Amino acid sequence: ISSTELTSEFLQRIQQLNPEYNAFITVNEELSLAQARAADQMIAAGQASPLTGIPIAQKDIFCAKGWLTTCGSKMLSNFVSPYDAGVIERFNQAGAVNIGKTNMDEFAMGSSNETSYYGPVKNPWDHAAVPGGSSGGAACAVAARLACAATGTDTGGSIRQPAALCGISGIKPTYGLVSRYGMIAFASSLDQGGPMAKSAEDLALLLNVMVGFDPRDSTSLQREAEDYARDLQKPLAGLRIGLPKEYFAAGMSNDVASAIEKALDEYRKLGAQTVEISLPNAPLAIPVYYVLAPAEASSNLSRFDGVRYGHRAESYSDLADMYRKSRAQGFGPEVKRRILIGTYVLSHGYYDAYYIKAQKLRRLIAQDFADAYRQCDIIMGPTTPTVAFNLGEKSGDPIQMYLSDIYTSAANLTGMPAMSIPVGFGDKNRPIGLHIIGNYFKEAQMLNVAHQYQ
Ligand code: GLN
């Protein structure tokens, strides 16, 4: 099958099913098919690599030249990017096809995709359920087979939580491996792009393309290239799996607990051993995250002022009024809430009490993990405390929504790689994810561990 045929098939499926799912904000058949035809030429010329001609959905947080790039916000509802993000460039060089831009929570702030200016996304397993967020459109697109794979970004769990709730696999690599250039910034010290796909094997092929040094991102790491698929077949005998007792405590629902227990049994059968570990400061991850992420967001989002790009109010009296009205109209309630919290914790008089304190706790959380890795090779637990909740169930209660990331946000605070893989179904037949956290740069080992289960 040619890339042009494959791409046409997916475009047709999207046309048929997206009105129901709302997984894509933008589809551009002309641009996608042009890439498919170029890929077919690469293939004919013998220049194909594993992703050449493969339709991949791009989260609408990645700037892609000629594509509307909204970040799920009214603020950018008219922004056609004049340039490609580092990640998009790498996919283009590999000959992959951009099959469309996926729906997401506004500026990646959310856990259910309900904060998107473009409306919520449905969970393909149960249309009453949320797909998770913020990469909800990406997770839905992969689960509903509207794309072969997708990109996501993860600031506190936004790749892993939607992957878990939609029954697919997703990995947040070690901070600094994937370029943030052209990836619209939320909380720069936590944001990391990564792939979402059906299997660990697919994630490895995607990582091989996505990872790489980019001088335009000041936190991009310069490391020797590795093949993330190299260890997929390794046996797991002797692997020590750490189970943090803080993650196996109250809060986890029974259906999730039993699915995780079953998965761990499978790992024991594969020759791994489990050891109890402790991450005493891990329960602080959510409060720390909700000081630091809004602080960074309030600074990053100051660039949206209605002057250079994005939404500008139609009528205003002077410059300050133009800023005020443009931002009041362009941002939704969750984004405004974050800007207010962030501005508050950074303000004179509160900076030491909140921001500095959170930074210190961030350090302690990282130390917990460093200590734990003396007793185990890899850490496992649930990705989320419950299966997907219903649309509308938590959208009126920010604190309940924030708790969706109770297990995932520590990996962003420490910069460690973490992934979610599907391990069965729970209440109402909704999917459950196993969370696998690795030490820095252990992606190949994590993919091996995931692949052996799958
Ligand atoms: N749910 C978290 C938040 O709302 C994390 C989002 C993300 O990882 N982008 O901030």
Automatic annotation (TrEMBL):
Example GO BP: translation
Q: What is its EC number?
A: 6.3.5.7
Example of a GO MF term? transferase activity
Active-site residues, as the UniProt record annotates them: 59 (charge relay system), 134 (charge relay system), 158 (acyl-ester intermediate)
Which GO cellular component term is one of those annotated?
A: glutamyl-tRNA(Gln) amidotransferase complex
The text of the family note is:
Belongs to the amidase family. GatA subfamily.
Assembly, in brief, is: Heterotrimer of A, B and C subunits.
Q: What is this protein called?
A: Glutamyl-tRNA(Gln) amidotransferase subunit A
Per the UniProt record, the source organism is Nitrosomonas oligotropha
> What is the phylogenetic placement of the source species in the record?
Bacteria, Pseudomonadati, Pseudomonadota, Betaproteobacteria, Nitrosomonadales
